[in-house]
From TrEMBL:
Pfam families: PfkB. It comes from Gossypium aridum. InterPro entries: PfkB_dom, Ribokinase-like. This is Carbohydrate kinase PfkB domain-containing protein. Residues 81-204 form the Carbohydrate kinase PfkB domain.
Length: 285
């Protein structure tokens, strides 16, 4: 079974953003931002809104205490060489976001650093408010870098049907962990599971993974553990920061500055929280 999608907007046929006529935030939009815990934006917002509007939205979000999540996506590279206004808006996002989410290639294009951990640390250094930088490593897994440590989680092995919606699903899980102060390694494992479960289906929207599917995946996991890849990536960083690593079989504990946490421990701590949220109506089943 194959799924094929084509997304086309007005921006594909014009250099102007689709809603270039919008120049101020409406009171309705301001109320929505103020009521929200997180404002999530990605690079494609530049195809819809002017750079001025985007900066206005970020500034108002910061003013009212709502957190900013930003995923530059493939547009990040083109924005770096875009108009002066686009470059200014991109720089504003990178400085004012609480959480940045990007692939290893996108991190390299924004910083010039091949090592995704060094790239993330550079983004943290330049950010005024940045607390987390999450780097998506494709089939290898993902990394969450803070100023105090590095957290790594291998990806789940699944049969991929369609990757549409996986990135947004991953972000939603990261946001859940951020809002609820869930441990970083647990948040990362949950996000990997949500993204993987979504890839097992077809299409986005209402077709993204359900909580039931995510739980089933985490309870009977098959992690894509590539020890050689992770050892090479982390070797240069073990002396400078503590590293927390999600493992399937390794006993909980530390080895030097490497702290191993088993997936079983993560699942046992996370599932009660998820089921409680489901009962409260804050998660979809």
């Amino acid at each position: 079974m194959w799924c094929c999608f084509c997304f086309i907007s007005r921006a594909d046929f014009s250099k102007e953003p689709a809603f270039s006529w919008m120049n101020t935030l409406s009171e309705e939009v301001k109320r929505a931002i103020k009521r929200s815990r997180i404002l999530f934006c990605n690079g494609y917002d530049f195809d819809e809104l002017s750079s001025h509007m985007i900066i206005s939205a970020v500034e108002y979000t910061v003013e009212v205490g709502t957190s900013v999540f930003f995923d530059p996506g493939p547009r990040g590279k083109s924005l770096l060489s875009g108009t002066v206004e686009e470059q200014k808006a991109l720089e504003h996002f990178l400085r004012m976001s609480d959480v940045l989410l990007l692939t290893s290639d996108e991190a390299e294009s924004l910083t010039g650093l091949v090592d995704p951990i060094l790239a993330a640390q550079e983004l943290l250094r330049k950010g005024n408010r940045t607390k987390w930088v999450v780097v998506k490593m494709g089939p290898k897994g993902s990394i969450l870098i803070t100023k105090s440590g590095i957290t790594c989680a291998s990806a789940f092995k699944v049969k991929i049907m369609d990757t549409v919606g996986c990135g947004d699903s991953f972000v939603a899980a990261i946001a859940y962990g951020f809002i609820h102060n869930i441990p970083l390694v647990t948040t990362l494992a949950f996000a990997n599971a949500v993204g993987a479960a979504t890839a097992m289906g077809c299409g986005a929207g209402r077709n993204v993974a359900t909580l039931k599917q995510v739980v089933e995946l985490m309870e009977t996991p098959d992690l894509n553990e590539d020890d050689k890849f992770w050892n090479e990536l982390l070797r240069e960083h073990l002396d400078s920061q503590e590293v927390t690593f999600l493992s399937k079989m390794v006993l909980n504990g530390s080895n030097g500055r490497m702290k191993h946490v088993t997936l079983q421990k993560v699942v046992s701590e996370l599932l009660p929280k998820l089921k409680s949220s489901q009962l409260e109506g804050t998660l979809s089943s």
